[in-house]
What does this fold into?
Amino acid sequence: MAVELQRLIEKVAHMDVTLIAGEDGMHNLVSWVHMVETTEASDFLQGGEIAFVTGLGISNRITLLSLAECIYKKNAAGMIVNIGPFIESIPQEVTDFCNEKEFPLFVIPWKIHLAEVMRIFCFAITKDDQRTLETAAAFKNAIFFPKQEELYVVPLSQQGFRVNWKYSVCILQIQHSSSALSSRLDQLTASIGTFVRHKYENCAVFSHDTEILVVTAAESDEQLRSFIDEIRSHTLSYLANGETITMGCGKLTKSVRCVYKSYHQAKSIQKLQENAKIDPSLVFYSDMGIYKLLMGIEDKEIILEYYDKTIRPLLDYDQKNDSDLAVVLRCYLNHNGSVKETADELYVHRNTINYKLNKISELLDMDLSQLNNRLQLSVGFMLLDML
It folds into this structure.
C-alpha cells in the first residue's frame, strides 16, 4: 500500500516544505517514512520511503551527495532535507543529481518540527491503507459471497460506492514476470491505483491471488471502454522486459449485487487470452461473439456435462494413447470441414486426416459430415477454452 508523493506534500503545504529538484518524480509512491543520517542507515530502506535528513551524520567521510545517492539506490520515493545548523544549503551537485534521476528533493526550515511532518505523512498513509483494505475486502465479498449482502452493501456505501451504480470488473494478470510475482503484483497494483486516482474516483484497485482487479462504476459502455483502454495503455507502459499481461473486462452490472457476474465474465476473457484462444486486443465482454452466450451460463454443472459428452472422450483417448485426434478435429472444425485445408495446416497427407476423422467419428459416435454435429463439437472446444 502506498500514497502518491504529490498527495502527501499537499497535506503539509502550510509547513514551508519546498521542492527544489526532481519535480518529474512527484508521482512516486510513498509507503512510509524513515530518518536517514548515514549511508549505513540507508541499508534499512526497503523501497518507497520518503527519507528525512537533518545532516547530523554529514562529515568529511559522508557528503550529502553520497547520502542522496545511497538513498536513491534503495528506491526511496524522495528526500526531505532539514536546513539548519548541520546543512546550511543544498550543494548544486546534489540538485543536479536529483534532477537527473528525477528524484524529488525537498528542503524544510529548521523551525519546522520534522516529527510533525512525519506524523502527518504516517497518518495519511495509514488512513489510505485502511480505506483501500476495507474497500477491497467489501468488493471481494461482493464477488465471492454475493448472497451475503451484509458483508459488502453497507461497507461500500460508507466508502462512497452506491449500491445502485453500474459496476464492471476488469482482471489483469502478469505473464512471464522475470522477478518475484508477489513483488511485481504489488508494484503494478500500486501503479494502476495511483493512475486511477488521477482519472476517476469511483474505482477500486486491489489484488487477489495472482490477479489485479479493477472495479469501476460507469454510466455507459462508452465511458467504461475509454477508461479501461487507458488502464491497459498505462499498464503496458509499466511492464518490464519479458513481461506481458492478459486482461478481461466484464459488462456493466445493474447494481453492486451483480458484481460477481462481471467478475466471472472478466475471468473467462482473461483465461481465453492466457490460453491464446482470442486476440490480446479483445478485452471487453461485448466483443466476445458467441463466447458471450457461453459466459452467461451460471450453472457450471451444465458446462461440465456438455464438455464431458462432446470433447472429453477424445482428450482422454489422446492422453491414454499419446495421439493427436483432438488437435486434428479442432483444425478440421476451424477449416469448416475441409480435409484439404486441415491436411495443409498440419503438414500431413489427406488420407491421414481422413483416417483420423473416421477414428474420431467412431469414438464420439458422431457423423462429422453433419453441420449440427460439427457445431456441437465446436461449442465443446469453446467451453474447454473457458475451463
